[in-house]
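Posting here for the record, re: flavin-adenine dinucleotide.
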Amino acid sequence: MGIGSFDRYDRIIIGAGLYGLYAARFCGKRGERVLVLEYDDKPFKRATHSNQARVHMGYHYPRSLSTALKSAGYYRRFHEDYGFSVMDSFRQIYAVSSQFSWTNAEQFQEFCRSAGIDCRQEHESVFFQKGTVDGAFLTQEDTYDAMILRDYFVDEISTLKGVEIVYGARLKSIRKNGDVYEVYYDDRSLAECGEKQIDSSFGGSGAKQADGSIWESGTKRADGSFAEFGARQTDSSFGGSGTKRADGSFAESGTKRADSSFGESGAKQADGSIWESGTKRADSSFGESGTKQAVAGFVLNATYASCNQVLSCVENAGPDDNFDLFTIKYELCEIILCRPSEALRDYGFTVMDGPFFSIMPFGKTGLHSLTSVTFTPHMTSYDPLPVFSCQQGCECDPRQLCNCNDCPHKPESAWEYMRHLADKYLLPEYGYEYDSSLFSIKPILKSSEVDDSRPTTIVVSSTGPTFISVLSGKINTVYDLDEFLV
Ligand SMILES: Cc1cc2nc3c(=O)[nH]c(=O)nc-3n(C[C@H](O)[C@H](O)[C@H](O)COP(=O)(O)OP(=O)(O)OC[C@H]3O[C@@H](n4cnc5c(N)ncnc54)[C@H](O)[C@@H]3O)c2cc1C
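Prediction output follows.
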């Protein structure tokens, strides 16, 4: 129902991955009016699908007991609620590499005991090449099928009258106004995929980072260096990493654009759109017919890899609000899907604890996912907003990540490297063939790098009106949202 020129909701949720749709269902079931804005043309097209699909029990985190304990608790609840999407009829073998591992077999067993999770020692020679692993353990860990989970949420939500999902939404800005947030977006649901945008910038945000510096995301583009990526820190510091940037270049990220014409003052972009150098963005497209406006006293930012991008487009934050960006690095990751041999079909193998690999069933698809700590990440961005060298000639840029799976500039597969690594460990009968690749961006809290923990972090930027962001570590910690939604 429109109020003035606005549509008013109880909640606006940005992002239709698991976290967004879980929240939408949760609130919709309470009879609330909910608007979900999703960039892609369907839900669950990013991390919730393009991942390893492991329902974590905790084995993965021998250096973070807190992550392991939390995983174990949520594993059981996830099983109860979404067991229909879970595949558990396979044997998940964890092994500790005999070389270059942070943990040895004895420590792994001790860790499992402390975390209260089952692990039974197996003869490593049944699975692994001689001398490659220090110990092998049968564990209890499953895989979920994202497409089954997606269909469940979509069906459930379709029965909730108050929940509306807009696909193809292009967020323009979020403005705090009294006790509500006004959210401005274009509805591209009916537009052709890849349609050109005259102005893809996110409005002058002035978002504060954790280190107190200010990002001027998508604001003035008077100087060339700024225009190159559309966002910079006014103090030239480098997103919490402590490395100074004297000239606005990307020295540490290694992702400087080869195409200097991109974003140059008044320059034409590769996709044909024009950067409006030095002009304010509030704005030519803003308020044009096509831009919609919705208001709510509660906004949930459930955009995962885009969480900082959404945070940085909030305007009019008050002095007591905290719109610090998450201190994260971004990895562009590849999940390889393989067709398993007969012997491999009913097994999953994870070799840890360090730069090793994992091959395990991918939900109920009949395929296995193959990943490796070293080769799954193709590129890394240490910038507060994600900067990748492949963001050329497409809509994807540091202010809005597009879906890597749909992108012509996605990296070449690292299949040969990953296969080579796995083959060094596994006996030849556990063979597999390449099927396809999935790509997604993984945001990793810089503070997690020490112990390889994967906490789910929920930050309340403001209350009355409320603005919350969730940066999840895992699928089954989705229940962490509950207390923020009541
Ligand atoms: C490579 C990789 C492997 C992983 N492996 C596992 C694993 O084995 N087990 C596990 O439990 N977890 C794993 N994870 C973590 C897990 O995938 C995430 O914690 C979880 O999927 C995040 O869900 P989400 O709903 O927050 O994000 P997503 O599923 O990414 O959903 C975010 C949504 O927001 C949308 N969006 C982005 N920007 C905007 C915008 N401006 N406007 C509107 N919509 C927007 C996106 O299109 C997307 O649909 C992995 C993650 C990665 C990247």
